[in-house]
Each structure stands twice: as structure tokens, then as C-alpha cells.
Amino acid sequence: MTLTSTSSPAVKGPQGDGPASGRPKLVAGIGGQNISLIGALVVVLVLFGVLNDNYLSLSNMQVIAEAATITGLLAIVQTVVIICGGLDISVGSQVGVASVVSAMVFTSTGSGAFLGMAAAIGVGVAIGALNGLIIVYGRVNPTIATLAGLAAYKGLAQLLSDGRAQGYVLNNDVFVFLGRGKIAGLPVMVWILIVVAVTAHLLLKYTDIGRNLYAIGGNDTAARLAGIGINKYLIFVYTLIGVVAAVAGIMLTARTGSGQPVSGSEGLELKAITAAALGGAALKGGKGGIGGTLLAVALLGCLENGLTVEGINTFWQNVAQGALLVIAVVIQQRRSGERAVGLPH
């Protein structure tokens, strides 16, 4: 699939904002949204650090980083699809399918870890491309299409696995290294997150592909008139989500030791969307960045770990996620200057 590299003169920068006159250079460089996230992150760290002496320990920080990797991967690609005006609610279910396939192919063939991983990525490509094709050529709203995918792919994972964990992969050195190994003191999964984040950042900020994605999300009519092949870009982005979701599924398998159809993947779509929105990705498209998303992932990870360490009921974590998503959207609406629904101008 060849992507059109035509850039649009109306495209804004990767964050969607230029330096505002009168704004301090430091604030303009980092971004007001990111500074707010950094402030919130510091508050969370200080609060739980005071409540629990072990919270800020190196070992607990590593636990937080490892736990946030899968959410981080999905939040990065969710940011990319939101920038171009789409949304993918099915990512959690895609992770479940990939996890099951990677473990089942590995255990059933005895051909080593790489065949199972390749099969999972192949399934991820197929699922992602299918989502893109349904949205583009079926003319289905992305929210509806991927909401259907959320249920369908979850059912597929359960059918393949008979509704329970499948296979055992911790007798394989590759899976063990992926799930528990370290490079230069950092877990391998964290390195994978770093590589994906840097790649996505470079793609969005320094390539025509990235500029065109912002153009499509900002004004798809203008993007089409500028000669950008919108359909190809949408299929590409949803296929990319499938690939990264498959990688996340493989990581889930390596971390838990078996293929998980639901456990470990359910609810990931909400976390990914919340992180992207908190990080500044406008749900209407055309604005967002990887840096803000990673800060939001860190904030959510630290908050979730802190609540767990303090023994607070895990149900409150879902309440907190929902509240943060609403807050993020409210802030976006206020900054956009749009009037409230049903109220006069």
C-alpha cells in the first residue's frame, strides 16, 4: 500500500498549536497541557510517597513502568488514530486475540516462540486492516465499527481458547526474556515501549505522513482537495493499530506465561483512550502528541499503583479513569471555545 506524501499548507504542528505570543518560551516549548500533566504527576508521587514509604522505591517504580507498558503501546497508536479523526474501541479485544494466538501456535507446533509471535502479528494485521476496510468502504462510523469489533474479537478470542488461558510459554527463553529480561537495567518491555514511542513521534513530527494525518483530522475536506489519499491513510492507521495491539498481546502472553483471552486485556481500550485524551489528543482530530500521551500513561500508572498499594478497592480505579476521561474532554471543549449543548451563544 503506497501512501500519498502530499503535505497540506494548512497543517498545524504536531501538537496542533504554535507558540503563542507573550507565552514564556519554556511553557511554549513544553506545552501547557504537558505542564499540567507534569504537575499532576508530581502531586500523585508526593501524595502516595508520604502515605507509603515504599511507594517511591526503585523496585516499585519498576513495577509501575512494567505495568504501564501495554497500556502505553495502545495509547500511542490510539493517539495516532485520534489525530486523524478516528477512534478504535476494539484494541483491548485485539490484544486478547493476539495473546491467545501467540500461545496456542507456540504450544501446538513446537516450532519456537517466533512462529507464535509471527502468527499473532499476522492476525493483528488482518484485524486492523478489516477495521479500516469496514470504516472506509462500508462507510461505518469508526466508533460503531470498532465497538462491534470490541464484542466480535472478544468472542473470537474466547472461541479460540474455549474461554480459558491457553498454553504455557515460560519454558521458552525468548518469551522469558521478553517478559522478565532486562537491557541496561530496564525491562525489555519498557524498551519496546520506548522504541514504539520514538518511532511514532518521529513519524508524526518529521514526515509528510504525519503532517497529512494532522491534516486529515483537522479538516478532511481540505485534505482531500490537497490531494491526500484519505482512504489509504485510514486503512494504514487501523492496520498499524492491529500490529501494535498484536505486539501488546505477545507481551501480555510473555508477562503472564500463557495466552489470555480476556484477563489482562479487558478494559485496555478505556485506559488507552483516557491516556490519549489526557495527553492532549483532541477527540475531534487534528491535534495531539506522543509526549503528552506518555505523561498521561505515567500519571494513570502511578495513580493506579498508589491506590493498589494503599489497599483501596480496585473498583475505585475504574471510577477514577472514567472521571479523568470526562475531565479531559471538558478541558478540551473549554479550550476550543465551543458553547455548551443547549445553551445560548
Descriptive account of the structure:
- The protein has 345 residues and is an all-alpha fold.
- The protein is 70% helix and 1% strand.
- The protein has helices at residues 25-30, 32-51, 58-83, 91-109, 113-137, 142-161, 173-180, 188-206, 208-218, 220-225, 230-256, 268-278, 290-309, 315-336, and strands at 182-183, 186-187.
- A two-stranded antiparallel sheet has the order 1-2.
- A hairpin with a 2-residue loop joins strand 1 and strand 2 (186-187).
- The protein starts with 24 loop residues before the first helix and ends in a 9-residue tail after the last helix.
- Mean pLDDT is 87; it is low at 4-22.
Work out the strand percent.
under 5%
Helix content: 55-70%
Give Rg in angstroms: 20 Å
| Low-pLDDT ranges | 4-22
Give me the strand/helix succession.
HHHHHHHEEHHHHHHH
Secondary structure elements and pairings:
Blueprint: H1 25-30, H2 32-51, H3 58-83, H4 91-109, H5 113-137, H6 142-161, H7 173-180, E1 182-183, E2 186-187, H8 188-206, H9 208-218, H10 220-225, H11 230-256, H12 268-278, H13 290-309, H14 315-336
Helix pairs in contact: 2-13, 3-8, 3-9, 3-11, 3-12, 3-13, 4-5, 4-6, 4-11, 5-11, 7-11, 8-9, 12-13, 12-14
Could you give a short description of this structure?
The protein is mainly alpha-helical. It has 14 helices and two strands.
What brief labels describe this structure?
345 residues; mainly alpha; two-stranded antiparallel sheet; 70% helix
